[in-house]
Amino acid sequence: MFRYASARIAQTVVVLLAIAFIGFLLVSNLGDPLASLLPPDATPQDRAALIATLHLDQPVAMRFLTFLKGLLVGDFGISYRSHEPVAALIWERLPATVELAFASLAITLLVGVPLGVYCGIRPRSALAKAVMFVSIAGVTLPTFVVGILLIAVFSVKLGLLPSFGRGQTVDLGFWKTGLLTASGWRALVLPAITLSLFQVTFVIRMIRTQLMEVGHSEFIRFARARGVEARRIWFVHALKNTLLPVITVLALQFGNIIAFSVVTENVFAWPGLGSLFLQSIQTADMPVISVYLIIIGAIFMMLNLLVELSYPLIDQRVLRERA
Amino acid sequence: MTPLLDVRDLSIVLPREDRDLVALNNASFTLGRGEVLGLVGESGAGKSLTGAAIIDLLSPPLRRSAGRITLDGERIDGLTPAQMEKVRGRRIGFVFQDPLTSLNPVLTIGRHFTDTLLSHFDISFAEARRRAVHWIGRVGLSDPELRFDQYPHHLSGGMRQRIVIALALCCEPLMVIADEPTTALDVSVQAHVLKLLRDLHAETGVAVLLITHDLGVMAKMADRVAVLYAGRIVEIGPAARLLGAPHHPYTRGLLRATPSHKAAAGRLEPIPGSMPNLASIPSGCAFHPRCPRATEICRDRVPVLEGRHEGDAVACWHPVTEDRP
To answer: pLDDT tens for residues A134-169?
Structure first.
């Protein structure tokens, strides 16, 4: 177990370094920080001072180390667009995205898992067929179309829910939350549904396929031949076998929810990281772009690491196969 | 005395769009208390399906189309799924063929036992554990306490098959259906597992429906043997008589194609041709295209299973009468 865990962690660190390096290459090679940051009337002294602050006079290796050190202590550089520290920009937007992501994840789990299990156990039932039919829409419709449709129906036609923004937020000092006000919850509904629709259908289809496959295996037949109760067979013998792929994909999907909330945030003018990222691309704000990419990469890697560390708890064989 | 298991006119069909293919055709046989009945035949003859049909575990779209199955005086065909759950494992155990795929890879050995026991008996977990450990030891595994917490991949194929057998017997059923219990094992391990089966049969008096294509296994274990060909029972009788002086040309062909330990008994004679598949079963006696004794009538009419009595019968228009097998 120790060997398994340390190998996983070492791999994660290597990939994180690679991601940081790519992020660093973006900042150091694209765009001109001096032109972006200096006012038009800057003196050569200002120029020299800025070069020193940004360490532009140092060799590449040193600059990468400085960049890495900055990442570790939360110093992400300065935005070319707003001239504010990138860390502050990100921190201001992060709560919106995180709350949206968790809301979507909750919908995905609460709707996707039970429906998936049901469709896997009773694939021929009318409800399962209906769910599968509807889920085709969820898999094929692009996010922005879903978002616009929802806005058209629930905001424009019915006027039930707001079509943009986060509603009223409450500042807890370190975290601006929209979860403490009614308008915040109302504003969350449409974007969360939009963002989770693909995930929900994806999870339903995957759990269903997995369960149906496991349902045909010899050990399930043998369990039935021993008269093990149906409830035990499905929720212990079968479901545990589907957990590895399901957890893996769920974690990656959560990464996707965060990373690809870009489109949803844009459709609903949600003030999160995704819309910050789009604004930064439009203005070639390299420090923000690179830090955003590094953060998304780090989130993916951490989720992946957690998943891999949980494998041995579910299926002991991974320890033997990889040792 | 009524037999323990009485199977009457059991038929199994595989539905197709145009017509139903018949995988088992009107099979009738009985199994007495403590008896070992062998079902023998080539793969595809319908012997595994017969076993699965008895405990209502046919894989769809295969289904039972006719037949009465009586266990210990009670009909068990047509039970509800919940009632059938109580029969499986508790009254009829089932030994699966492949120990490598029959055990759930993510559950401990112990969990296999406790889930089975707790499904059938109103006992505490501690009691289920005690019985599980007892059975793990009884089928010859060392350190049963340790095995209880191990996973299937920690055990060898032979050990896993012992576990499979223990699982089939742990609820003390009246009979077990053993579907090719030694086929997937190494030859050296086969002998051990076979001995274990015989010992357990002798100790517990459990009746066994032994399904195998291996006539050697049959000769060692079975009291009576039924021979299946293309979905029909073509011969049934006491093992000594049937294996010593087979009446059906197919049974004789099988015996002549089986290597014998008595050595130098002569060359092996394969049966010409191969068993027909379900979609193209020949008219009359299904064996006639491969049979050296076949005549006009064999092509036209299906022979009925008849003999001195129901327990010793052959379905053939020209049964073998000479002594030599």
So the answer is: 888 878 888 888 888 888 888 888 878 887 778 777
Of A218, A227, A240, the CB nearest to B102: A218
CB contact, 8 Å: A319 with chain B?
Answer: no
Tokens 């419709």 correspond to A141
- List, for residues B45-67, the tens digit of each pLDDT value: 888 899 999 999 888 888 888 88
- Looking at residue A269, its amino acid is A
Residue of A211, A222, A242 to mutate for B, most B C-beta atoms under 10 A: A222
Contact between A230 and B81 using a beta-carbon 8 Å cutoff: yes
Q: Sketch out chain A's domains with CATH numbers.
A: 1-80+284-323 (no CATH), 86-278 (1.10.3720.10)
Q: Measured on CA atoms in the order A215, A220, A223, A225, is the torsion positive or negative?
A: positive
Q: Tokens in use for B20? A: 């139903």
Interface ipTM > 0.90: no
Q: Is the pLDDT of residue B167 over 90?
A: yes
Residue in B97, B103, B111, B119 to test binding to A, most A beta-carbons within 10 Å? B119
Phi, psi values for residue A248, rounded to 5°: -55, -50
Q: Tokens 């667009």 appear where?
A: A81
Read out DSSP for B26-60? Answer: EEEEEE-TT-EEEEE--TTSSHHHHHHHHTT-PPT
Nearest to B32 by CA among B238, B278, B316: B238
